[in-house]
Write a structure and sequence with these properties.
Blueprint lengths: L7 H31 L7 E3 L4 E4 L2 E5 L2 E2 L9 H18 L4 E5 L14 E7 L2 E2 H7 L4 E2 L10
Parallel strand pairs: 3-6
Antiparallel strand pairs: 1-2, 2-3, 4-8, 5-6, 6-7
Protein name: TNase-like domain-containing protein
Organism: Phyllobacterium phragmitis
InterPro entries: SNase_OB-fold_sf, Staphylococal_nuclease_OB-fold
Length: about 150
């Protein structure tokens, strides 16, 4: 038997297997990368990106009535620590709760911010999420201007 000539069906099977393995590898790496970039809670339909931004489906929502410490652009260690706690608390509030999203800023009537995120207030079991975070010291009422979190 001449091994210099491999049959066409064998070549197709080999190519098909290679394509399948490549696709599976790509899909697995994509899933890992997406999870690492977006945070551990974003594998669900609802997730917190930080203390005042959530993603519901594909919609990014900025909680309109609060300002939470910055997670990615913290100015000091204290702000970073508080931002992590605020995000975790928001995740707890969103987990398994009955949500009601009121789109639009109740103070200004605006529907989106300068980054294109939807402005909204969010109620969890008839309680305002922003009010909860403010009462727990994890956010401030939004006054239209960012206030520093560092001394």
């Amino acid at each position: 038997m001449n091994r210099d000539h491999i049959s066409l069906p064998h070549r197709l099977r080999t190519a098909s297997r290679l394509i399948c393995k490549s696709f599976i590898t790509f899909a697995a790496l994509s899933a890992l990368t997406t999870g690492a970039l977006s945070g551990s809670s974003c594998g669900r339909k609802i997730c917190a990106l930080d203390g005042d931004t959530v993603v519901i489906g594909r919609e990014h929502i900025r909680i309109a009535n609060i300002d939470a410490p910055e997670l990615r652009r913290s100015k000091c260690d204290a702000e970073k620590r508080l931002a992590v706690v605020a995000k975790r608390r928001l995740e707890e509030l969103l987990a398994g709760a009955r949500l009601h999203v009121n789109r639009g800023d109740p103070e200004t009537g605006r529907t989106s911010d300068r980054y294109g995120r939807t402005l909204a207030t969010i109620q969890v079991d008839d309680r305002d999420v922003g009010d909860i975070l403010v009462s727990e010291g994890l956010a401030r009422n939004w006054t239209g201007k960012r206030q520093p979190w560092c001394n």
